[in-house]
Amino acid sequence: MESLAWYEYALVGLVFVWSGFVRSGLGFGGAVLALPFLLLIVNDPLVFLPLIGMHLIFFSTLIMVQSTRDRASEQLKTINWQYLKRSLWIMIIPKMMGIIGLLTLPPVIMSTIILLIVLAYAIGYIVNRPIEIKTKLQEYGFLGLGAYVSGTSLTGAPLIVPVVASRVKKHELRNTLFVLWWILTSIKLISFVIVGVDLQLIHHVWLLPCAFIGHLLGNRMHTYLVEQETPMFYRVLGVALVIVSLTGLIKPLVFG
Question: Average pLDDT in the 25-49 region?
Fold first, then answer.
């Protein structure tokens, strides 16, 4: 990313503000909603995935510290640790499978199937009739597949979010997801280090402040959403999932 023009650096900075805003506001989507824009500037995901991953680790840690500090208050329980442990037991093996690439289904076909399923969930949220995950088979399937996709590309949120949203309280959702992303992304970054991917450390100096601006703006949006009635919250969640899903479906057509 060293050979970009000044305006391209400016565009990258703006996209990272957007990424921080989405991540902080909703608790997911920072990677999948930023990557298509970043790839228009530099068409190489490995340039940006380490940056997005490191930012996710930083802001997830910040959220966890704030939640722990606020633990004595009435709104104390903002992380559902019990469900977090349960979901990780389900996800850890598929996550490792995704990282080492054991599955042979072509990525484009796999992504298309996943995103079409997520679209069905998202439309249900928008019309206030979300599809409920009623069986353990559904829960295990979506969490496992989401963990696999997370292992390959850091974009497993559309599959994981509907499951977690159906199992934790509204005010717990964002922070529980942040802790989950922290763990899953740490595993991914370790794999980057092992295979020698450039972590773009020099660019954190100026991109982290950009993401922090987005983080502050996203916190305001999150506070507003949590204070609204539940249908409003889930409609916004549904719209976000539609955007994430359509972005994922359109991206292969745009970038080949």
Answer: 77
Q: Is 1 a member of any domain?
A: no
Closest CA to 148 of 138, 158, 136, 135: 158
For the chain, the domain total comes to 1
DSSP assignment string, 147-173: HHHHHHHS--HHHHHHHHHHHS-HHHH
Q: What is the pTM of this model?
A: 0.74
Q: Which residues form the domain of 82?
A: 6-255
Instruction: Give tens-digit pLDDT for 232-241.
Output: 766 776 787 7
* Phi and psi torsions of 181, nearest 5°: -60, -40
Is residue 77 a contact partner of residue 172, using CB atoms and an 8 Å limit?
Answer: yes
Q: Give burial (CB, 10 Å; 0-12/13-18/19+) of 27.
A: buried
Provide the terminal-to-terminal Cα distance of the chain, rounded to the nearest Å.
Answer: 21
Please write down the HEC assignment for all residues of 168-237.
Answer: CCHHHHHHHHHHHHHHHHHHHHHHHHHHCCCCCHHHHHHHHHHHHHHHHHHHHHHHHHHHCCHHHHHHHH
Per-residue pLDDT tens over the stretch 22-32: 888 877 777 77
Report the residue count for the chain.
256
Q: Which two tokens stand for residue 193?
A: 């280090």
Return the structure tokens found at 152: 């390959």
Q: Is residue 217 part of a domain?
A: yes
Task: Give the pLDDT score at 40.
Answer: 76
- Mean pLDDT over 119-140 rounds to 76
